[in-house]
Write a structure and sequence with these properties.
This protein is an alpha+beta fold. Helix content is 32%, strand content 10%. Strands 1-2 form a two-stranded antiparallel ribbon.
Length: 79
């Protein structure tokens, strides 16, 4: 796997974004996109009532149309 594909995979698995600088998207455009994403970012946390271990999928629905939620796919519970 080449470096670009590895970074894209890591970004996708962790709920992140992969942004590539190109002639069509110069670094100034990338910075503006990053600023927008960081300005509209929220952090949500919770405490599970489950006692099992293993992989748990994350699902975060929204009621308002047009909103985009970016999260990682899930996590491994350790207790």
């Amino acid at each position: 796997m080449n470096g670009k594909k590895a970074l894209q995979r890591i970004a996708g698995e962790t709920g992140g974004s992969f942004l590539e600088v190109s002639r069509a998207k110069p670094i100034s455009t990338i910075y503006m996109q990053l600023e927008e994403e960081l300005r509209d970012q929220y952090s949500v946390g919770y405490t599970s009532d489950g006692t099992g271990t293993g992989y748990r999928k994350i699902r975060l629905p929204v009621k308002r149309p047009g909103l985009l939620v970016e999260t990682r796919d899930g996590y491994y519970a350790t207790r």
